[in-house]
Design goal:
Length: 356
């Protein structure tokens, strides 16, 4: 079992709930602007292996120029020509250091045969938006850009510069582009007091929004590759010692395993807050889980895949390969195991646990 491509920077783990006091919608003109940007971005094929993010950056740059942003405040570039990042600066009074707003423009690949509709067609139906990237993360990109254009139109003067960076290669392209490339090569463009990135969702009850959940920390990611090797042979003379069978056994054992349930400072605060707005049967269990009850954590984890993932490190098989011919015994079978790890669980702990 070998560890590969662990993210270099710490990402943390969960959510804090902010109650929704009032809901004021922006003017219709601004809503249509945001929707138009959203649609345009979703319909650009920017899958991280077969697509390109440069057309997204070019489309956004064109909208910014049309809104009056000067060329000196717009940057496009990156490690490779077809994977451009975009950085734009909206000038404030300069009383405070800038704030950096981040979103990524590449998306996970989407095969047409896996979808009941074209994944790169923006569809609105029954109050929902459909299309690859509608949630992760072109919605956030559209929001940032629509807001900047509105600020420009209304003459808003914040006490600090607002920098928006739309980056490439978040969805598996590696650290050579995107944020890492900007830090190494264009640090002056994104230097800020703090940054806001994607992360968080909301809670609803009876069709009414009751909270916005702000993600203040996140798990970090490790991918492990499982390999089983064998001397092979002809399929007409099978043996029990088969690489594919051994790999299948390992994946089956993994499917039945769960890392220990636990809370940390962030997740404890989250479950405490959720217990105060939850009106159903889980109310007491959420409070008890925040208090450290393992029994309550088990109930909470069973009730929701999101809560389960909030309470523990998780590892799951995501890819498999095996064999080299239809009439030969396999000499190699492999699987990728994707782990999302709580901040206080070390790489060594996770790997030793999988080995065991």
């Amino acid at each position: 079992m070998a560890q590969c491509d662990m993210l270099r920077f710490l990402i943390l783990s969960s959510l804090v709930v902010v109650s929704v006091i009032g809901q004021t919608m922006p003017p219709e003109l601004e809503r249509q602007l945001a929707r138009g940007i959203y649609k345009e971005l979703v319909e650009i094929k920017s899958g991280y292996t077969t697509g390109t993010t440069t057309p997204v950056a070019e489309a956004v740059a064109a909208r910014l120029r049309a809104a009056g942003f000067p060329e000196t405040d717009i940057f496009m570039g990156g490690a490779i020509q077809r994977k451009a990042n975009l950085v734009v600066r909206y000038h404030g009074s300069g009383q405070r250091k800038p704030v950096l707003l981040l979103a990524h423009t590449d998306v996970v690949e989407a095969k047409r045969e896996d979808w009941s509709m074209d994944p790169f067609q923006f569809i609105e139906r029954d109050g929902y938006f459909y299309g690859r990237g509608t949630g992760d993360d072109k919605a956030q990109a559209a929001v940032w850009i629509a807001n900047l254009i509105r600020y420009k139109r209304e003459g808003f003067k914040p006490d600090r510069d607002i920098i928006v960076a739309l980056t490439a290669d978040e969805e598996g392209g590696g650290p050579y582009n995107g944020v890492q490339w900007l830090i190494k090569n264009k640090r002056e463009l994104i230097d800020a007091e703090f940054a806001l990135n994607e992360g968080g969702w909301g809670e609803m009850a009876g069709g009414k929004k009751i909270s916005n959940d702000i993600q203040v920390s996140e798990k970090y990611v490790i991918n492990f590759r499982l390999e089983v090797r064998n001397k092979g042979g002809h399929s007409s003379m099978p043996v029990a010692d088969n690489a594919i069978y051994h790999l299948a056994g390992a994946r089956d054992r993994l499917s039945k395993f769960g890392f220990p349930l636990k809370t940390n400072e962030v997740t404890q605060a989250y479950f405490e807050a959720m217990s105060k707005i939850e009106a159903g049967a889980m109310k007491n269990d959420l409070a008890a889980a925040a208090g450290g009850s393992i029994e309550a954590m088990q109930k909470v984890a069973r009730a929701s895949t999101a809560w389960n993932a909030t309470l523990r490190t998780t590892c799951v098989a995501t890819e498999i390969e095996g064999g080299h011919a239809k009439n030969a015994l396999p000499q190699l079978a492999t699987a990728n195991i994707n782990c999302r790890v709580l901040p206080d669980d070390s790489v060594e702990y996770v790997q030793s646990t999988l080995n065991r």
